């Protein structure tokens, strides 16, 4: 059955489609500006007006959803990440505009505080320690602002205990029963986030590390327990982050719960493929497609990937 293209296709077990693609983008304030991200070749920070044009193209290509992440001025960041609650922050402005101008693409927003805090953590710090319940209250406030702006899915990546249940309760109480929650249920304390932190401007801010609230890379049982807790609190979808180093966790979560399961092919994964491809060490396009197919084989229903526009072009024959 391997002897010809047609026979290989006939017995292929997993297929990557346009429906699997979610595109993370980076937003900045201002107008008509693009900023290159040196650690992520081919990825840019863009202003809302340009992001809208990019979103129109993404929708034409068949990409299902966009996940915006902000890089705001350091002067606007504080210890509590208060700008996440601002209804006019760059993510919420983008969301309102895209719902008017490109309504046929989904918007998935993150309610974590790290792009908005002066210390780069996903929650509120007091005396060098994350304060869980105060952090959850701020995260809920941010999630409500995102829902009011028109977000279709709230995807909290902060890993605070109890935040999924608190977000679900607040959304329902404010009339947003149809806004879904995609929980970053198993987010690991990983070395693969470095380029992302450059992209959102937190690389030089982080005091300490995030091991006190992210999952230990050594632990898969703990990851499954975290997923079970988020499901019990009302998550509609689960995510594993990073992706490739944790294919076993994706498979375990999919098998255990049978719920829509996603992976985030994070910045470090993207940058490694781009760098190796640029140096001629691997075939970049083949490695890109193979890496995404691996997520499907592991049980993913979709992937957040910076490769989404290029992959969509390939899948649609452009």
Automatic annotation (TrEMBL):
The keyword Magnesium applies. CDD domains: ALAD_PBGS_aspartate_rich. Keywords: Heme biosynthesis, Lyase, Magnesium, Metal-binding, Porphyrin biosynthesis. The keyword Cell membrane does not apply. InterPro entries: ALAD, ALAD_AS, Aldolase_TIM. GO terms for biological process: protoporphyrinogen IX biosynthetic process. Pfam families: ALAD. Gene3D superfamilies: Aldolase class I (3.20.20.70). Its EC number is 4.2.1.24. Pathway: Porphyrin-containing compound metabolism; protoporphyrin-IX biosynthesis; coproporphyrinogen-III from 5-aminolevulinate: step 1/4. Mg(2+) binds at residue 226. GO terms for cellular component: cytosol. It catalyses: 2 5-aminolevulinate = porphobilinogen + 2 H2O + H(+). It comes from the Bacteria. Homooctamer. NCBIfam families: PRK09283.1. This is Delta-aminolevulinic acid dehydratase.
């Amino acid at each position: 059955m391997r002897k010809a293209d047609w026979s290989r296709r006939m017995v292929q077990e997993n297929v990557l489609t346009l429906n699997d693609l979610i595109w993370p983008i980076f937003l900045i304030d201002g107008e008509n500006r693009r900023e290159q991200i040196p650690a992520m070749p081919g990825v840019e920070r863009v202003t809302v007006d340009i992001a809208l044009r990019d979103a129109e193209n993404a929708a034409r290509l068949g990409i299902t959803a966009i996940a915006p992440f902000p890089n705001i001025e350091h002067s606007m960041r504080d210890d509590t990440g208060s700008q996440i609650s601002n209804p006019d922050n760059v993510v919420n402005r983008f969301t309102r505009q895209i719902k008017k101008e490109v309504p046929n693409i989904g918007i998935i927003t993150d309610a974590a505080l790290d792009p908005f805090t002066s210390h780069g953590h996903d929650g509120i710090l007091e005396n060098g320690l994350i304060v869980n319940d105060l952090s959850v209250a701020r995260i809920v406030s941010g999630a409500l602002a995102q829902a009011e702006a028109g977000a279709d899915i709230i995807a909290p990546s902060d890993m605070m205990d109890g935040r999924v249940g608190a977000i679900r309760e607040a959304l329902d109480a404010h009339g947003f029963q149809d806004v879904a929650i995609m929980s970053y249920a198993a987010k690991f304390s990983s070395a693969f986030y470095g380029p992302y932190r450059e992209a959102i401007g937190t690389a030089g801010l982080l005091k300490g590390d995030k091991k006190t609230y992210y999952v230990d890379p050594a632990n898969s049982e703990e990851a499954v327990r975290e997923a079970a807790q988020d499901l019990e609190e009302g998550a509609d979808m689960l995510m594993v982050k990073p992706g490739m180093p944790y294919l076993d966790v994706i498979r375990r979560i999919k098998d255990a719960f049978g719920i829509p399961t996603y992976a985030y092919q994070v910045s470090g994964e993207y940058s490694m493929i781009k760098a190796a491809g640029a140096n001629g060490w691997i075939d970049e396009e083949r490695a890109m497609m193979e890496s995404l197919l691996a997520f499907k084989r592991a049980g993913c229903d979709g992937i957040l990937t910076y490769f989404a526009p290029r992959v969509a072009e390939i899948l649609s024959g452009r």
